[in-house]
C-alpha cells in the first residue's frame, strides 16, 4: 500500500454517525465482511481527506450514502466496498493497484468500471458522448453490479441536487430522465425508477411538479373515504374466500401523472378518477383465485385484463392486472401478485441478491437482464458507430412492449410499434434477411405491418430475398437495424470491389495492359507497400475514391517493367452504370442526373463516385482535377427511381396545388417534397421534388402538368 492509505485498525468509537448507520445496515453480512466495509470507509475517507461537496459536507459522506442505498437492497460486500471507493480513482491519488492489494481484483474492476461512467456527459449527441454511453452499457454487460452502483450514485446525487447551480440541475435532471430512469426500469428496479423520475421531474420542471403535487394531495384528501371503503370491501371478499392477502392502495406519482397527461392527452381529472390497489398473496395459484374473487365483487371491464405471470415482461416483472367498475362509477385498477413477485417488481435485478455466477440461480429479472445485456454485447460487436449503437439501445429502453407467439408456441417480447420484419429478425438473423411476407393470425400481410400483443406470427422466407435500404425506414428494434445495416455494408463492399476492378482495368487499358497481365508477385509487392492485405481492399479503396486508379495503374506497370511507363494511345472506354451500384455511387444534389442524361463521375474521397450531368455548373471545377474525373455512361438496362426537381409556375388560386399534384401522380411519379419559391396575389412558383425512372418519364410528367390549365410554365430544375 502507498502513503495514501491509513493503518489497518478501525476504532468504532471514532466512527461518525453516518458510518455507524451504514454499519447497522450491513448487519446482514458476516462479521468479517462488515470489518472489510469499515476498512473501505477508512481507506476512502483518507483518500478523500480535505475534499468537500458543494453543500459543504465532507466528500466521503456521499460514497457512504451510496453504499447505504445499496445496503438497503441487501447487496454483497464487494458491491458495498466498491460503492464507498467509487470516486477514489477519479478524484484522489489512490491507484487501482492500491485497491487490488487491499480488496482484490473484483472490487478494483467494479471501481474502475464506475470511474469510467463518472466521466460521462449526456447533454449533447456528439460522438464522444455516444462512445461514453457505449462504455457504460458494456461495463453493465461485464458485471451488472457496475450499473447498480451507478444508479445508487445517481439517486443520492438527485436527492442532494439542491446545492448545484440551475444549469447543472437541469442537465443532470434531463440525463436522469432520459438515461438512468429507463435503465432502472429495464432492469426491473421500479422503486429506483420511480424516485429518479420524480426527483428529475422536480428539478427539470419545478413549477409543473409543484402544481401537480398540490393537486394530487388535494384529490387524495377528497377521496380518502372512498379508497378506504373499496380497500375494506376487497379485503373482506378475499378473507371470505379464505385467501390470506395484503391489500394496499396505490397512488400515482407526479411524473406518472404528468407523462400520461402529455402522452395520452388526458386531463388531470381523467387520470385521478381511477382508484388503484395492489393485492399481495402467497402463491401464484392464489393470484388467479384472488383475481376470481375481486371479479365476483366488482364487474371487470372488457379487454382490460393482462396476465404478466404467464407472460412476464422483458424485465422479469410478473403480476395480474385487471380493471373493475367500482361502486362509485369510477374504474378500479387492481394488481395481483405474490410477495416474491412484489419484491422483483420493486427491486428487479437487485431482489434477494446473492451475486450470481452464470451457472448459479437467478430471479426472473436477473435472468432476463442477462439476456438483454448479452444481446447488447452482441449488438455492439457488429455496430462500429457509437452513435448508431446508442440509437439502438435507446429503442430497447423504450418501456412498452408487445407479446407475440411463434407457430411453435414460443413467446417473443418486442418494443411497441414493432413490425413483422422486427419479429423475423427476433426469431433469427437469417429469417430476417430472407423474409418476404408474414402470416399474422393466418392472414397474409406485408413485412411493414405493425404487430399487436397476442398475435400469432409466421414469417415467409425465400432464398432469393435480401435486405434493402427501405427496410430501415420501418423497423424499430436495434437487432433488426444492426443486421440490415451490416448486410448493406457488406453489399457496398462487394459493389466497391466490382466497380474498383472496372476502374483499374480501364486505367490499365489506357496504358496498353490489363489487370490479368500484372504478375502476382508485382501485385503482392504493391499491396505490401500500400499496407493492404488483399487485392479486394485495393479495389474497394479505388471505388471509394481513396486511391486514384490512374496512379495505381502507373505504379503497377512501373513495378512490372522496372521503370515508368509511357502512355499508349488507347481510347478510354466509359464505365457503364445501371444505377444498382448504389453502394459506391451517389447522385449530385446540384443537378439530379437521370438515365438518358450525358453524365460524368467525380471521385470523392470516402464516398466513391458522385454522378453529375455534363452540363452541371460544378463540372468545370471538377475538370481541374482530371485524375478524379471518371468517364461513365448509363447502361442500356437501368433500374430504379431517381430524384428530379420541377420548377412550376402557376396561377395563384384555390386548389391549384392539388391539381398539379394529381397530374404528377397520374404520371406514376412519387412526390417527395413541395415548397413555394415565390408567391404573390396573381401567381406562384412551386418547386416539386419527385421520383422518376428516366428523362422520358420526366418529360411525360412535364407534359401532363402543362395540360392542367393552371400552369404557365414547367421546367426541369436546375435547367
Automatic annotation (TrEMBL):
Species of provenance: Frateuria flava
Function: In eubacteria ppGpp (guanosine 3'-diphosphate 5'-diphosphate) is a mediator of the stringent response that coordinates a variety of cellular activities in response to changes in nutritional abundance.
Protein name: guanosine-3',5'-bis(diphosphate) 3'-diphosphatase
EC number: 3.1.7.2
Residue ranges of domain HD in the record: 59-158
Keyword Ubl conjugation attached: no
Signal peptide (from-to): none
A Pfam match: HD_4
Family affiliation: Belongs to the relA/spoT family.
Key word Hydrolase present: yes
Group of enzyme by EC: hydrolase
Amino acid at each position: 500500500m502507498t502513503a495514501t492509505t491509513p493503518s489497518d485498525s478501525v476504532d468504532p468509537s471514532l466512527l461518525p454517525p453516518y458510518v455507524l448507520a451504514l454499519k447497522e445496515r450491513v448487519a446482514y453480512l458476516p462479521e468479517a465482511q462488515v470489518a472489510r466495509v469499515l476498512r473501505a470507509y477508512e481507506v476512502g475517507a483518507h483518500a478523500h481527506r480535505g475534499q468537500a461537496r458543494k453543500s459543504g459536507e465532507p466528500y466521503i459522506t456521499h460514497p457512504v450514502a451510496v453504499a447505504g442505498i445499496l445496503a438497503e437492497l441487501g447487496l454483497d460486500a464487494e458491491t458495498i466496498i466498491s460503492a464507498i471507493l467509487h470516486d477514489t480513482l477519479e478524484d484522489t491519488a489512490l491507484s487501482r493497484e492500491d485497491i487490488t492489494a487491499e480488496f482484490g481484483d473484483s472490487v478494483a474492476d467494479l471501481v474502475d468500471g464506475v470511474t469510467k461512467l463518472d466521466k460521462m456527459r449526456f447533454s449533447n449527441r456528439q460522438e464522444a458522448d455516444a462512445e461514453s454511453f457505449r462504455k457504460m452499457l458494456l461495463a453493465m454487460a461485464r458485471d451488472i453490479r457496475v450499473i447498480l452502483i451507478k444508479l445508487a450514485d445517481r439517486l443520492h446525487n438527485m436527492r442532494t441536487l439542491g446545492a448545484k447551480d440551475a444549469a447543472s440541475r437541469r442537465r443532470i435532471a434531463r440525463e436522469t430522465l432520459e438515461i438512468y430512469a429507463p435503465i432502472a426500469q429495464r432492469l426491473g428496479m421500479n422503486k429506483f425508477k420511480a424516485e429518479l423520475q420524480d426527483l428529475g421531474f422536480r428539478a427539470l420542471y419545478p413549477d409543473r411538479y409543484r402544481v401537480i403535487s398540490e393537486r394530487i394531495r388535494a384529490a387524495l384528501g377528497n377521496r380518502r373515504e372512498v379508497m378506504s371503503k373499496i380497500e375494506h370491501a376487497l379485503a373482506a371478499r378475499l378473507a371470505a374466500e379464505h385467501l390470506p392477502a395484503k391489500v394496499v392502495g396505490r397512488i400515482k406519482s407526479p411524473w406518472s401523472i404528468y407523462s400520461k397527461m402529455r402522452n395520452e392527452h388526458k386531463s388531470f381529472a381523467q387520470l385521478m378518477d381511477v382508484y388503484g390497489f395492489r393485492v399481495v398473496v402467497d402463491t401464484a395459484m392464489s393470484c388467479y383465485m384472488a383475481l376470481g374473487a375481486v371479479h365476483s365483487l366488482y364487474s371487470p371491464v372488457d379487454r382490460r385484463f393482462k396476465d404478466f405471470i404467464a407472460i412476464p415482461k422483458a424485465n422479469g416483472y410478473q403480476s395480474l392486472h385487471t380493471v373493475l367498475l367500482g361502486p362509485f362509477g369510477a374504474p378500479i385498477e387492481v394488481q395481483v401478485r405474490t410477495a416474491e413477485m412484489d419484491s422483483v417488481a420493486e427491486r428487479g435485478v437487485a431482489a434477494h441478491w446473492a451475486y450470481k455466477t452464470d451457472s448459479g440461480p437467478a430471479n426472473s429479472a436477473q435472468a432476463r437482464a442477462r439476456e438483454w445485456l448479452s444481446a447488447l454485447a452482441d449488438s455492439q460487436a457488429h455496430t462500429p458507430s457509437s452513435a448508431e449503437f446508442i440509437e439502438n439501445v435507446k429503442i430497447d429502453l423504450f418501456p412498452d412492449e408487445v407479446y407475440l407467439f411463434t407457430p411453435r408456441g414460443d413467446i417473443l417480447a418486442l418494443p411497441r410499434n414493432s413490425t413483422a420484419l422486427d419479429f423475423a429478425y427476433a426469431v433469427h438473423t437469417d429469417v430476417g434477411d430472407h423474409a418476404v411476407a408474414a402470416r399474422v393470425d393466418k392472414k397474409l400481410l406485408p413485412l411493414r405491418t405493425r404487430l399487436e400483443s397476442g398475435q400469432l406470427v409466421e414469417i415467409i422466407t425465400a432464398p432469393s430475398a435480401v435486405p434493402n435500404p427501405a427496410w430501415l425506414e420501418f423497423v424499430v428494434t436495434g437487432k433488426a437495424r444492426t443486421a440490415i445495416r451490416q448486410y448493406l455494408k457488406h453489399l457496398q463492399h462487394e459493389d466497391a470491389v466490382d466497380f474498383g476492378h472496372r476502374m483499374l482495368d480501364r486505367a490499365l487499358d489506357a496504358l496498353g495492359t490489363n489487370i490479368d497481365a500484372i504478375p502476382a508477385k508485382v501485385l503482392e509487392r504493391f499491396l505490401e507497400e500500400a499496407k493492404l492485405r488483399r487485392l479486394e481492399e485495393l479495389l474497394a479503396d479505388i471505388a471509394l475514391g481513396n486511391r486514384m486508379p490512374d496512379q495505381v495503374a502507373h505504379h503497377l506497370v512501373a513495378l512490372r517493367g522496372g521503370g515508368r511507363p509511357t502512355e499508349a494511345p488507347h481510347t478510354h472506354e466509359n464505365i457503364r452504370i445501371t444505377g444498382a451500384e448504389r453502394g459506391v455511387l451517389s447522385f449530385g444534389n446540384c443537378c439530379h442526373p437521370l438515365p438518358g442524361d450525358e453524365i460524368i463521375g467525380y471521385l470523392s474521397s470516402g464516398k466513391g463516385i458522385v454522378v453529375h450531368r455534363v452540363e452541371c455548373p460544378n463540372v468545370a471545377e471538377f475538370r481541374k482535377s482530371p485524375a478524379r474525373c471518371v468517364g461513365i455512361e448509363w447502361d442500356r438496362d437501368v433500374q430504379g427511381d431517381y430524384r428530379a426537381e420541377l420548377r412550376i409556375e402557376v396561377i395563384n388560386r384555390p386548389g391549384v396545388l392539388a391539381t398539379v399534384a394529381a397530374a404528377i401522380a397520374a404520371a406514376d411519379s412519387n412526390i417527395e417534397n413541395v415548397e413555394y419559391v415565390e408567391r404573390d396575389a396573381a401567381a406562384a412558383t412551386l418547386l416539386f421534388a419527385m421520383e422518376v425512372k428516366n428523362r422520358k418519364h420526366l418529360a411525360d410528367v412535364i407534359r401532363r402538368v402543362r395540360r392542367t390549365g393552371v400552369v404557365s410554365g414547367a421546367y426541369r430544375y436546375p435547367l
